[in-house]
Amino acid sequence: MPSTKAKSLTERTGEALYDMILIQKQFKPGDKLPNEFELSARLGVSRATLREAVSALIAQGVLVVKRGSGTFIANELPNIGDVSISSIDFVRVRLSDLYEIRLMFEPQSVKLACERADESELAAIEEQSKKVNRLLRSDGNWPDADQEFHEMIGAASHNEFISRLFPIINSAVHEVMLVSTNQKLLKDIVRRDNALIVEFIMKRDGDGASHAMSIHIRHMINALKLNS
Questions:
Q1: Distance from C-alpha of 86 to C-alpha of 147, rounded to nearest angstrom
Q2: Domain CATH code at residue 191
């Protein structure tokens, strides 16, 4: 992977991890990666640097994320010459584009949810928001829980197209957590914005919920820019 400039720590970390997979055969296709604490210690880097390197390898098909299970080595690995770890900027641009798509449809979907959801769906959405908060406080797997929170809102819109679109578009949520170097900022955004969204949903205030969702997504877009 030749370069005309000094390689960043993220690039070197990605190359070291790639070498562990392809050359040293420490992991084989289908294996689950060790947890962040173990792997960052093994590579001698911070968890933030590891996340960026992992995200670049995900973008290029070396690693795959399985929701609720973790990050795995892809079953079919690309050729060595096809991988360039310097794709962090590409990953961020792709995520920003996906969040812009969310901005186009998610405020409307939450408005529909306010109008169409039954009481059990509203209660489930409220309970899921509490679960996200518990995981935020305990440093658990809150990104997946938050993704499920948004998908539940989409399902409560009772629009089949929106329900099918959510799992695809909201895959961006997991990746933005991987590339972000400011976890505290993201946690603060999710904690604060979700509370406002749920408040409007429980009141069946569609316009309020729509505005709250729009603000939340703009907060996430701005957080992405801060990490670029």
A1: 28
A2: 1.20.120.530
| pLDDT tens column, 43-90 | 999 988 888 888 888 877 788 888 778 899 988 876 545 555 454 554
3-state secondary structure 190-220: HHHHHHHHHHHHHCCCHHHHHHHHHHHHHHH
pTM over 0.90: no
Q: What is the mean pLDDT of residues 156-162?
A: 91
**Which of 59, 82, 105 corresponds to the end of one domain?**
82
